[in-house]
Amino acid sequence: MSPLQAEQQRSKKRLRHRSSSSDMEHEYFGMYSNIDIHEEMLLDASRTEAYRNAILSRKDLFDGATVLDVGCGMTCILTLFALEAGAAHVYSVDAADVMDTCAAVLQANNVSGRVTLIHSRIEDIEELADGAPKVDIIVSEWMGYALLFESMVESVLLARDRFLRPGGHMFPCSARIFMAPFTNDDFLDKNVRVWHEPMYGQDLSALTSHALQRHIAMPQIVNMSDENIIGGACVIRTIDLGTEPANPETLMHLSADLRMPCIAHASLHGVCAWFDVTFPGGIVLSTSPSAEPTHWAQTAFFFDANGVDVDQDDVLTGKVDVQPAPDSHRLLRFDFAVRLMRNKAPSLAIDKTYILC
C-alpha cells in the first residue's frame, strides 16, 4: 500500500473539524451511507472475526434470543452472526441511508423474516415494535479511535437502558483505554523529515512547517508495533457496558493520572492510545501494538518531531483530560500535562492540547 493509499484508509472515519454541529451530524451519518467505510471495517479480519467468534461461541445465549443490533450498517454483519448463532429475531437499527442495501443482504441470506429493519437514530425510538418485549442481547460495533471517538457508546448505553431486559447481555460487555510512550522515526521520516531533503533537485523545505502542523499538531492514526513502545502502558479508562451510567457528562469526560516508566534508552516522540473490548465468554478484541493490526490502529499524540532522549527508569508522569470537543460531541479533546522525571526530578514539561477529528 502506498503512503497515499494508507492516508486515504486512515481518513475514512475522520470527521471534518470546524463544521457546524448539525452539518457534522449530517456528515457523520452520510459517511456511513458509503460502501468504503463498511468495506474497511468488514475487511478488518481482527475486528470481524472477533465479533463472529464471540457471538458463535455463545450459542447458549443467542439460541432463541431476541437481539438488538445498534448501528447495523450496510452489511448487517452482526445481525447475520446473531442469526447464525440461533437468534429468533433481530431488530437492526441504523440512521444512515443503508436500509435498501440491508434488505437486499438479508434477502440474499434468506433471513428477511427474522429481522426488523429500523431506519432511525436509536435516540429517536421509543419502542422497537408495537408491544415488543425488551431484548435479550444488544450487539454493536461502536468503538472509535481511542475508543470514544464518534461517541457512539452514548447511543449504545441509551439503547441498553431503554430496550435490554434485566439480566440481558451486552456484546461487547467491557472496554479499556490504554496509553504508553512511543518512538516512531519511520513515521517522522516519511511525513516530516522528507521535506528536509531536496526533491527533484529543488529545495522544498519551506513546506516543513505545514507538515508539522498536519502531522504533529494533530493526533495521528498510526499502526505501531511493540518496537515503538518504549515504556509501560497504563489504563486510563475502564467501561462496564452493563453498569456504566448513560450520562455523557461522566461517560465522555475523563481525567486520568499517568505514570509510564521508560524501559529503554530511546528517543521519545509522544504518547499513543489504544483500546480493547471483552465479550461475554472472555474473547478479547485488542488494538494494542502487540496485537494484529486493525483499522483503528493506535492514536498517536506527537510531543516533538525531534524527539527527547530518555533512559531506562525515566518516568513520564502527569495527567490527561479527555472530553468532547467544543465543535461537536463526536470529536475529542485531549489535554496533556506531562512531566519527564529523571532521578526523581522533573527534566521536561509537556503541556499540549489536541483535537481528534
TrEMBL record:
Residues 174-336 form the Protein arginine N-methyltransferase domain. Its EC number is 2.1.1.319. The keyword Transferase applies. It comes from Plasmodiophora brassicae. Pfam families: Methyltransf_11 (PF08241), PRMT_C (PF22528). Gene3D superfamilies: Hnrnp arginine n-methyltransferase1, Vaccinia Virus protein VP39. PANTHER family: PROTEIN ARGININE N-METHYLTRANSFERASE (PTHR11006), PROTEIN ARGININE N-METHYLTRANSFERASE 7 (PTHR11006:SF4). Keywords: Methyltransferase, S-adenosyl-L-methionine, Transferase. It catalyses: L-arginyl-[protein] + S-adenosyl-L-methionine = N(omega)-methyl-L-arginyl-[protein] + S-adenosyl-L-homocysteine + H(+). GO terms for biological process: methylation. GO terms for molecular function: histone methyltransferase activity; protein-arginine omega-N asymmetric methyltransferase activity. Residues 1-22 are annotated as: Disordered. This is type I protein arginine methyltransferase. The keyword S-adenosyl-L-methionine applies. Residues 68-170 form the Methyltransferase type domain.
